[in-house]
Amino acid sequence: MTEPIRVLQVFAQMNRGGAETMIMNLYRNIDRSKIQFDFIVHTEEKCAFDDEIYKLGGKIFRVPAYKGKNHMNYVKSWRNFFEQQPEYNIIHGHVRSTAAIYLKIAKKYKLVTIAHSHSISSGTGLSAKVKDVIQYPIRNIADYLLACSKPAGEWLFGEIACKRNNFYILNNAIDTKKFVYSEKIRNGKRNEFPIKNKLVLGHVGRFNASKNHDFLIDIFKAVCDRNENAVLMLVGDGELRKTIEKKVNDLDLGEKVIFTGVREDIDELIQAMDMFVFPSLYEGLGIVLIEAQVSGLPCVVSDKIPKEAIITSNVEQVRLNNSPKIWSEVILTRLEGYERISPIVEIKNHGYDIEDSQRWLQKFYLGLVKKDETRICI
Prior knowledge:
CATH class of the largest domain: Alpha Beta
Strand order of the largest sheet: 3-2-1-4-5-6-7
Number of helices: 16
Radius of gyration: 21 Å
Largest sheet: 7 strands, parallel
C-alpha cells in the first residue's frame, strides 16, 4: 500500500474538548504513512486544532450545523461531499446528535461506518429529549460501535447492542510521558502566575453545565473559609464562563480564582496544581482525570465519574448531594501529608497509554479496509 488510508473523523468543531483531545492524541502517534485523518466539522470558524491538523497532513471539510429547519440542506451537504470525495472508505462519527443522518448517507456511498460514544447524557430540557430520540437509530445504522467506557456505550447504544461483536471500548489514552510529575516544570508554572506559595486547587474543562462549575465555586468558597492561602485555577472556556466569573466576583473571590482560558500547556498547568477537583454531573470517561492521576495529583471527584477513570488510590469520590463544606473537608484532609509520585506504570497497565491505543486503532482501521476482521484484535 503506497498511499495511507484516509479516515473521515466527524466533529462539531476541533477545539480542546475531551473527544477532540483524544483523537488528536491518536492522530499525533498513529503511523501516518498507513493511516491519515481528515476531518468534517460543523462550523465555519477556525478552531484550536486546525493548524496542527494541516501540519500533520490532514484536510478539513465543513458542513452546516444542524438546526432542524435546515434538514434538507444538511442532507444535501453530505450527499454533495460524498459525490465530490469518493476516495473515502471509512467514516468515524463523534457527533452523535446527527449520526443517524450522516452515517446512513455514508452507507449508501459504501463507506464503513463507525459511531463513537463519548458521553452518558444529552443534558437536560427539551433539546436533550429530542437528541435522545434522534440518536436511538445509531445502534442499528453504524457498522461498528465504539465507546470510551462501558457506561458511555450502554447509554448511547443500549445494553443489547453492546453485547454484539461489533462493539468495542477504546480507552481515551494519553501520552503519559508528558504528564509525569516534574518539580522543575511545577516551579516554573507556579512562578509564572505567580502562585508559588499558594495551595492550588485545579480544574480543567469546558464551562458548560455538565462540568458543574457553579458547585465547584461553592466548594472553593468552603475551602477558603478554612484556608485563606487557597487559590483555584480554572482551565478552559465556554458559554458559562461569564456566569461563573460573576459568581466569583459576587462572593469576593476575584483575587483567588485564576481563569486561564484555553491553553496548550495543560500538562504543565496540572503540574502546578496541588489538588484536582472534578464535581461533574456526568462524564463519558473524563480524560483529564487520567492526566491528573499520571501527574500524581490527589483528586476529589463526583460520584458520577465512571469507575473506568478511577485507576489509582489518589482518587476519592464524593456524592454530589453532599454539601460544599463536606467536599472541602475531604479536599483538605486528602492533602495532609501527601507525597506526590507519578503512578505511570499503573496507568499504562490499565491501557491508558497512547502507544497501546494507537496500535489497536491502526489495526482496526486496516482490518476494515482489508475486510479481514480476524486482524481486529482487542
